[in-house]
């Protein structure tokens, strides 16, 4: 009888723990996904000025990110969506890497709602809606091809835009991407029904199934956040022109972004050639 009671108590304890964990995951899941940093607009303006960037504003005059100064010699535009932490100005390495290639790239660092000085609540819906507006703004501005970089969580936003604007997005650079956020969550929480509970899914594999432009993939070989296998799976499943580089010794946040790293030239050449060819 005592053995039975102990077994029953342990079983009930596990059930209660599982129920509490599910309730917490359901209620707090976005706090486990999004880690925004916030700052006053004037502070961000000063930071941007120090690294040679300007505020990028929408048609209502609201700041939606940062951009390199207008360059009449530029032939291509890169729209950058960063990962789930910090804010856009933390990603100046994308500007430095592209600009050291010459004067052909204009770079736009998009800021998510709820990050930096932008208001609203971070979510897949708010990110994709504002990202569509930003891309439409670029497309209406001039005819230079628009490429998109997506870093980590931003790869889900970039993939979504490629599916929504397949004929307007010239190409993608996906950095530490994943098949879907549910796959990442299932890897980290295998004991919870995350595939049922997760509201923000960022299904890049599904999104890219309707896109045929060039896609460059940059993976970290020792990625402790987004398993490298998920990025490899996304690469393997993509049916359009593709290029892959795996930084074998890098973790999720230790990729080599030095502007002198050889992969910058290779990515730029791959995207410029195939992306421009696609638009002819």
Could you name the key traits of this structure?
280 residues; two-stranded parallel ribbon; eight-stranded mixed β-sheet; single chain; alpha/beta; globular
Structure write-up:
The protein is of the alpha/beta class. Helix content is 45%, strand content 18%. The protein is built from ten helices and ten strands. Strand 2 and strand 3 form a beta hairpin. Helix 4 crosses helix 5. The radius of gyration is 21 Å and the shape is globular. About 2% of the residues have low confidence.
Gist?
The chain is an alpha/beta fold and 280 residues long. The chain contains ten helices and ten strands. It has helices at residues 2-33, 41-50, 92-99, 124-141, 153-164, 181-188, 194-197, 204-208, 228-237, 262-279, and strands at 35-36, 54-57, 63-67, 76-81, 85-86, 105-110, 146-151, 169-175, 215-220, 242-247.
Itemize the secondary structure elements and their pairings.
Layout: H1 2-33, E1 35-36, H2 41-50, E2 54-57, E3 63-67, E4 76-81, E5 85-86, H3 92-99, E6 105-110, H4 124-141, E7 146-151, H5 153-164, E8 169-175, H6 181-188, H7 194-197, H8 204-208, E9 215-220, H9 228-237, E10 242-247, H10 262-279
Parallel strand pairs: 1-5, 4-6, 4-7, 7-8, 8-9, 9-10
Antiparallel strand pairs: 2-3, 3-6
What about the largest sheet? 8 strands, mixed
Q: What is the end-to-end distance?
A: 80 Å
Structural class: alpha/beta
Strand order of the largest sheet: 2-3-6-4-7-8-9-10
Radius of gyration, taken over Cα atoms and rounded to an integer in Å: 21 Å
- The helicity comes to 40-55%
Strand content: 15-25%
Unreliable sequence segments: 13-17
Q: How many helices?
A: 10
The backbone outline, from C-alpha atoms, is globular
Give average pLDDT, whole number. Answer: 91
Query: What's the β-strand tally?
Result: 10
* Secondary-structure element pattern, one letter each: HEHEEEEHEHEHEHHHEHEH
């Amino acid at each position: 009888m005592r053995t039975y009671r102990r077994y029953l108590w342990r079983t009930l304890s596990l059930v209660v723990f599982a129920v509490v964990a599910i309730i917490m995951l359901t209620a707090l899941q976005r706090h486990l996904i999004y880690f925004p940093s916030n700052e006053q607009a004037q502070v961000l303006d000063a930071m941007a000025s120090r690294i040679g960037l300007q505020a990028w504003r929408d048609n209502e005059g609201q700041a939606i990110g940062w951009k390199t100064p207008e360059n009449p010699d530029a032939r291509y535009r890169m729209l950058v969506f960063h990962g789930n932490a910090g804010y856009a100005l933390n990603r100046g390495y994308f500007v430095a890497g592209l600009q050291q290639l010459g004067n052909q790239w204009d770079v736009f660092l998009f800021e998510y709602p709820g990050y930096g000085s932008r208001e609203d609540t971070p979510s897949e819906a708010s990110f994709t809606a504002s990202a569509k507006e930003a891309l439409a703004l670029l497309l209406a501005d001039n005819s230079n091809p628009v490429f998109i970089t997506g870093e980590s969580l931003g790869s889900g936003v970039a993939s979504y835009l490629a599916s929504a604007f397949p004929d307007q997005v010239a190409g993608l650079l996906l950095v530490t991407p994943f098949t879907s956020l549910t796959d990442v969550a299932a890897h980290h929480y295998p004991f919870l029904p995350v595939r049922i509970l997760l509201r923000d899914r960022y299904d890049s594999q599904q999104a890219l199934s309707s896109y045929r432009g060039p896609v460059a993939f940059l993976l970290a070989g020792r990625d402790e956040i987004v398993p490298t296998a998920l990025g490899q799976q996304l690469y393997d499943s993509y049916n359009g022109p593709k290029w892959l580089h795996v930084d074998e010794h890098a973790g999720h946040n230790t990729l080599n972004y030095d502007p002198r790293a050889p992969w910058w030239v290779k990515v730029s050449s791959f995207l410029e050639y195939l992306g421009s060819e696609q638009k002819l």
